[in-house]
Amino acid sequence: MKYLLLSMLFLSTASFAEQEFQQSMDKLCEKTMACAKAQLPPSMQGMAEQMMGGMCQAYDQAFKAALNSEYKGLYTAAQSCVSSMTALSCVELMDDPETPACQEYQQVAAEYQNQ
Q1: How far is CA 80 from CA 10, 38, 47, 92, 101, in A?
Q2: In sequence order, what are the residues at sequence separation of 6 or more whose Cβ sits closer than 8 angstroms to the Cβ of residue 39?
Q3: DSSP one-letter code for 63
Q4: pLDDT digits (tens, 9 = 90+) for 71-102
């Protein structure tokens, strides 16, 4: 019974972390799309949505490993990276930024890949 409760607690915590991270990813995606659309004339904004949808999928793939329970240290670094990118201005965000938090995420991810 004790192990069942611990398992349920872990799963609910993991689920909450996944939801929280997905919300952060959604905010970054929405901001990226809004910034891209703002740079285009209205006639091209539909095309921007299609292109940026691909960007959002790329974000999801880039941070997918952060939700793997085997890579606990990666989650915090990924969350910091996503938050740092969301905090950028549109000009900075559209300039393919590398924030210090994202550089840290890349270093932590590389360590996990080398294990």
Answers
A1: 22, 26, 30, 17, 6
A2: 90, 94
A3: T
A4: 777 888 999 999 999 999 999 988 888 899 99
